[in-house]
Design brief:
Helices cover 29% and strands 33% of the residues. The protein is α/β, with parallel strands linked by helices. Strand 11 and strand 12 form a beta hairpin.
Length: 272
């Protein structure tokens, strides 16, 4: 049996499935977890691959470490989304004092905690607070401010559409400390340039500094994934203050090279 994801009008990725471990239509989306032949356990949401045990480290390490490694004291961190726990496990490799995670779908959290060992371990950490709520509501009412905000969100469909609006980033900016930064996934530079341009234009209106960067991501469309680092204050260069231990992809060399953007993407974003 194969599970297929339509990644574009003319491209599909098929993964051979050994067993269906979990399937539930929640209030928000269809959540499925499979045991696969080549990729270990696989999380799919609305028939799109979110996480595989084989390659999740490319995505989660890239989403988290370039930001947290550049912040001197990232004591208070906010994660929006990320119910699979992958971003959280990477955040906990840094000297953080507390992590607040806002996930809209509690069923994703429960399923991933049961089937992915890293999630079960990360969610037991005493520094972690989980809130099951729409992120739009949370960021409007929360009083505290954060050193770092990580957007581990899905594609711009369904409940994730909110993460691609100016209002959302305006409210997000209000709860970010003056020296703080935000990291976010920004889709495939091969297939999603229109979405990337939309995100970039919003960020350009709201923040002083924007740094696009890339990582490989084998099971995502195009096999190459884009992220943005954004800061409230003007920055000319990003240097890591610390490199976390026990990573599989991220290191000092990766940090120094991931911000080197290919020419087609530079032209698309009109960056230098």
């Amino acid at each position: 049996m194969f599970f297929s994801e339509k990644q574009s009008k003319g491209t599909e990725l098929r993964i051979k499935i050994k067993k269906v471990l979990f399937r539930k239509k929640t209030k928000f989306q269809l959540v499925e977890i499979f045991d696969s032949l080549d990729w270990g356990k696989v999380l799919a949401i609305d028939s799109l691959f979110m996480v595989t045990e084989k390659d999740e480290f490319f995505y989660h390490e890239s989403l988290v470490h370039p930001l947290l490694s550049t912040i001197k004291k990232p004591s208070k961190v906010l994660i929006i989304g990320g119910g699979d726990g992958g971003a959280l496990k990477e955040v906990l490799k840094h000297p953080v004092k507390e992590v607040t995670q806002v996930e809209i779908d509690e069923e994703v959290f429960k399923a991933c905690k049961n089937f992915f060992p890293w999630a079960n371990k990360a969610y037991k950490d005493k520094r972690v607070k989980i809130i099951f709520e729409d992120a739009r509501d949370f960021i409007k009412k929360v009083k505290e401010k954060f050193d770092a905000i990580i957007l581990d969100t899905s594609d711009p469909v369904g409940p994730a559409k909110v993460f691609y609006t100016e209002d959302f980033y305006e409210n997000l900016k209000k709860i970010l400390k003056k020296d703080g930064g935000i990291s976010l996934q920004a889709e495939s530079p091969i297939f999603h340039l229109k979405v990337i341009k939309k995100i970039y234009n919003i960020l350009n209106k709201k923040f002083q500094s924007i740094f696009p960067y890339l990582s490989p991501m084998p099971t995502y469309p195009g096999g190459l994934w884009l992220y943005f680092l954004v800061f409230k204050r003007k920055k000319s260069i990003i240097k890591p203050i610390r490199i976390p231990k026990k990573t599989k992809y991220y290191n000092r060399d990766i940090h120094e090279t991931c911000f080197k953007i290919p020419e087609f993407l530079k032209k698309s974003l009109k960056t230098l």
